[in-house]
């Protein structure tokens, strides 16, 4: 199976402090689903930032889609990032845009014509239970509603990799499962999904999902899939 992410001896340090991540070596495979777990401060958000190219590592090698992103020229990064959907923990919606326009933004950036984006955006708004709030600005939405809009924006363009930081933290359990089903549907279309979560009850909702556990900035041994093994997480020696 195709490797889409390859970390080799990766470390990340902020300033002159101790490494937030240390010696990470693993591979992620195309079309697989991974849950990233660990206590607060374990390094989950730092690892996600490396995956969505917000930071470059302090040391080590990272390849994504077969390309070395550590040495990649900065002018290539914006185009490369469009292959990666991100659900941020703090949402990062544009307050001057409606829910519809926030969700439609990735399609517009990629050049999709207006007549071709209305259907997909409205379909997602219905799926996340916000069909009647399409024209609402983020400041008028609840935290849970903003979270759903942020998730819809991340998945609308069918990214090759989806990275989600606590995507169900502001919604009720029923909606949390529904959003995970949305991720699972995208995963079945070929997207590699990485979800960071504290909610261990969600980990068994996805058939064939793999678990990645961080502790003190290091990745522990894989525990295998949570249901019916698909492709195991590979920790490089």
Polypeptide structure, described:
The protein is an alpha/beta fold and about 240 residues long. It is built from six helices and eleven strands. It has a six-stranded mixed β-sheet with strand order 6-7-8-3-9-10, with helices on both faces. Helix 3 (about 100-110) crosses helix 4 and helix 3 (about 100-110) packs parallel to helix 5. The longest helix has 16 residues, at about 175-190. It starts with a strand and ends with a strand.
**Which bin fits the share of residues in helices?**
25-40%
Radius of gyration, Cα only, in angstroms?
A: 18 Å
What is the topology, as strand order, of the major beta sheet?
Answer: 6-7-8-3-9-10
Kindly estimate the percentage of residues that lie in beta strands according to DSSP.
15-25%
Mean pLDDT over all positions: 89
Question: How would you sum up the global shape?
Answer: globular
Q: Given the helix and strand composition, which structural class is it?
A: alpha/beta
Largest sheet, strands/sense/barrel? 6 strands, mixed
Q: What is the first-to-last residue Cα distance?
A: 19 Å
How many beta-strand runs? 11
Helix and strand element order: EEEHEEHEHHHEHEEEE
List segments where confidence is low: pLDDT < 50 over at least 5 consecutive residues. 223-232
- Count of alpha and pi helical runs: 6
